[in-house]
Description:
Helix content: 40-55%
Radius of gyration: 16 Å
Strand order of the largest sheet: 4-1-3-2-5
Number of helices: 5
Shape: globular
Number of strands: 5
Order of helices and strands: HEHEEHEHEH
Amino acid sequence: MAQATLPATTGEKYRVECVRWMTDFNPDLFVTFVFNRGIGMDEAQVALEKFHGHLDRKLIGRAFLRRPEKRTNYIATIEKPDTNIHIHALFKMTGIQKLRFCLIADGIWESMVKGGNLDIQAVHNAEGVADYITKELRPQTSDRLLLPRHREVSSSR
């Protein structure tokens, strides 16, 4: 009988817990945000937050900030900040939001990030995509883990 391998280091344990958390999030879409230019992590995070605001305004309407329960949610990670920075995000949304996301997301991103592009894929294996987007995530790189501000605020209450 094969023995399950347990994570040996704190970094591996952290990553295993992140994969479990992201899998339990049960995402609908796996989106890669590509900048195709050198920018810092702070600027990348601001761009994702701005994209998310534009997206929810189109999906929910002008009052999206006052309706956090209707907003789309994501868990994202910044990858390769020193060479080819990009963001992997797992989005959770309703069926109609998912359809509309696929129709409008490219236009929003292209208007914000000249030369940038998106790769949008449906999630068929949540654990697999969670494993993929956490490949560089460790406690010492936890600043690369991004949540929408409305989730950070509501989860701290």
